[in-house]
Amino acid sequence: MDIRPLRTEEDYKAALAAVSALVDADPAPGTPEGDRLEILSLLVERYEDSHFPLASPDPVEAIKFRMEQQGLKASDMKPYIGNTNRVYEVLNGKRALSLSMIRRLHAGLHIPAEVLIGAI
Question: Which pTM value belongs to this model?
Answer without folding.
Answer: 0.60
